[in-house]
Amino acid sequence: MTNGTVKPGRSSRIEAIRTRAFDHPQLPQLLVDVVTEDGLVGTGEAWWGIATAGRPPGDAAPAGTSAARLPGASFATIQAAIEGVLAPRCIGRPAGDIEALWFDMSDFAARYGDGGVITMGLSGIDLALWDLLGRRLGAPVNQLIGGRAHVRRPAYASLPALRTQEAIDRECRRAVAAGFRAIKLHEVSVEAVAWARESLGPDIALMVDCNGHFNVTEAIAFSRAIAAHDVYWLEEPVRPMRDIESLARVARAGPLPIAAGENEYSPADFQRLLASGSIGWLQPEITKIGGLTAARRISALAELHNVVLAPHNFRIGPCLYASIHWGLSSPATGWLEMPWLPEGRAFPSGAQLPPLRDGQVELPEGPGFGLNV
Predict the structure, then answer these.
(1) Which listed CATH number (3.20.20.120, 3.50.50.100, 1.10.10.10, 3.40.30.10) goes with 143-362?
(2) What pLDDT digit, counting tens, does each position of 228-246 carry?
(3) pLDDT of residue 10
(4) Cβ(17)–Cβ(49) under 8 Å?
(5) Where does 14-138 sit in CATH, by number?
């Protein structure tokens, strides 16, 4: 078994699809490996679930027990969808037939739903298949989907919820020192936004993500209050986060432009969101929508509706690298999201942020997605 390239030739058949679960109380990850009969491996990533502290950090899984089977493992249902519903549709089939595999899995799994854990699991397999194809051909995935529409795109540092002035000041300054020219907060108080602007000064872009914290009235008031701090966009201000009409009400009444889309799944979902006219930045999450095969179709919708594409991502792993390959292929892409963790914390897969140049990210080097994990 190898993650290197092999001589280009007929696509080998899929021998196995395996998940690698990194159980972590705050930063879980779920990687997916597709293995072919000639030993080549492609690696993707499924959405990781909702972080949970169901088991104290450092607690070992009992011998012979998968971490994902224990109470508190956030990705257990996604892992089950991959192993029990989706993977059996692929075994023995040519790994290079990505479109056929995607539609067969999607059609079969529609009995269970056309979103949620199904498309999350499908994402992991699909990304692994694209990584595998790139490795087989010795080419970056970006070249397999039409090449670069952009040589580089600006990246913003996406901070976790920090809540205190000391932590916000420290992480904003660290991110700027690392080369970022834009910062995204996950905060829900006017004071936190003011602290960040004070730390950043006037020349750094500042986005605010609310993760659906407010009702409509509260969201409008929050939008008006933080506008004085030169906020670039307001992200997912209302709950439920897929309540498009409420999002449109906030967009009409508040002064700030809206970013959203990380909790939509199908092209039809994105069409409804875009047709509402409520957003200026579209944020599909490649680990939720069905992977790169689906992402290419959603890119076309962003271009059709003349909104800026800003792929959503809060893990460092195949999902981030796939988002970069995807983002640089679409003329609509305006921003790429880079997770930014406090010093001393890291994602369990061990993957690292790609380098920045003048606050922008370029295509990672190497075949496939250019990442070995």
Answers:
(1) 3.20.20.120
(2) 999 999 999 999 999 999 9
(3) 56
(4) no
(5) 3.30.390.10
